[in-house]
Amino acid sequence: MLLMLQAFTAVAKLDGMMKMWFSFIGMGLMIVSALLIFFARSKTKGWIRVVLTIVSVIILIYGCGFELVALF
């Protein structure tokens, strides 16, 4: 709990420009995730499809994390 509180106070100290860059990074990661899942579903089969889908979900989670940092 203390670690989460320390992380939140560190994020709260970011200025507007840093939050803007975090937002851009988050949007970029979400776009990469969408393109990767599109490629995985349309062009691949088997275990490669599963691996690309898992990688895409991980990238999406990181993108959402960057967006949450930018939001708060």
Automatic annotation (TrEMBL):
**Alphabetic keyword roster:** Membrane, Transmembrane, Transmembrane helix
- TM region(s), chain numbering: 20-40, 47-71
A Pfam cross-reference name: DUF2768
What InterPro entries does the record tag this protein with? DUF2768 (IPR020076)
The name on file for this protein is DUF2768 family protein
State the organism of origin.
Cohnella suwonensis
